[in-house]
Amino acid sequence: MIGTSMEPASLAARLAQALKGMLLAAWEILPPYRMIEGRLTTKDRAPDGMHYILVEEQIVEVDWFTFGKLMPGEAVRIRMTRKNKAISIDRLLP
Hints:
Distance between the termini: 69 Å
Number of strands: 5
CATH class of one domain: Mainly Beta
Structural class: alpha+beta
Largest sheet: 5 strands, antiparallel
Helix content: 25-40%
Shape: elongated
Radius of gyration: 20 Å
Oligomer: single chain
Strand order of the largest sheet: 3-2-1-4-5
């Protein structure tokens, strides 16, 4: 087989890097979650296609469906991950 010889050190480094990535991804989705409550100030779509809303000076990543349903000025309560990705959004009645 051509090009299949791999140094044990580089294999261990690749495995360590993969394990580190999986642990960081798992850490992000584990509780405790952050909560914010306030009025949706603005919403914006980034050039890479990601959707964001601004609530109480916090930028929160949302999915495309939620982005389309929320309107600026709405009072909301958001539960989000450590990296500000929305988990749940509740509309608050005045």
